[in-house]
Amino acid sequence: MTDYLKKIEPTDVRFLIDLSEIKEMVQLMLGNLKEHLQVELGFDKIEDSYNTTTVRLLINLKENSVLTNEQNMELLDKGFTAGDEPFKNGDQVLYNIFGHDYSIVSVTKDEDGDFITIEMPYETFKNR
After folding, report:
1. Looking at residue 86, what is its pLDDT?
2. Gap between the Cα atoms of 1 and 91, Å rounded
3. Which residues lie across from 44 on neighbouring strands?
4. CB 37 within 8 A of CB 61
C-alpha cells in the first residue's frame, strides 16, 4: 500500500492541536519570561455577513508581577504583549509555528479539551 500512497501528492495538510500543546509552545517561545507571565488560551469565532465563520486564537498573557522595562522589551522583541491584544499574540504564535500560509478551519470542544484544526498547503509544509 505504501508504494501506491507515494504516488499521491496531497494538496493540503491538517493538524489537530490540543490547546494545551499550544500553551506549552507559547511557554517555550517565552523562555525565561514564562516565570513572570500567566498564559491563558481561548478562541473567538467571528461570523461575517456571508455566513462565513473565521476562528482566531486568543492568547492572553497576564503579568504575575510587574515586568521590568528590560523584560517588557524582551517580550515585545518576541512579538508578544502582556495584558492586551490577545488576537495579536495568537497570530504571532501561529505565525511562529506555521508561517504565514495557514488557516484555522475548525474548533472542537469535548471532554478531552479544546482542539483547533490548522490547514496549510502541502507545498508550504514540504518546504518548511
Report:
1. 94
2. 39
3. 56
4. yes
| The total number of residues written for the chain in this structure | 128
Side chain identity at residue 16, one-letter code: L
Neighbouring C-beta atoms of residue 116, cutoff 10 Å: 21
Distances (CA, A) of 64 to 43, 83, 110: 22, 11, 30
Q: How far apart are CA 50 and CA 92, in angstroms?
A: 27
Determine the Cα–Cα distance for residues 112 and 19; give it in Å rounded to an integer. 11
Is residue 43 in a domain? Answer: yes
* Residues 62 and 37 sit within 8 Å (Cβ to Cβ): yes
Alpha helices in 49-100 (DSSP H): 69-77, 86-98
- Rounded to an integer, the average pLDDT of 84-105 is 93
Residue 116: strand, helix, or coil: strand
- As for how many domains the chain has, the answer is 1
Look up cell 473565521; give the residue.
54
Q: What is the per-residue pLDDT across 44-59, written as a single tens digit (0 to 9) for each? A: 988 888 888 889 999 9
Supply the range of the domain harboring residue 118: 6-127
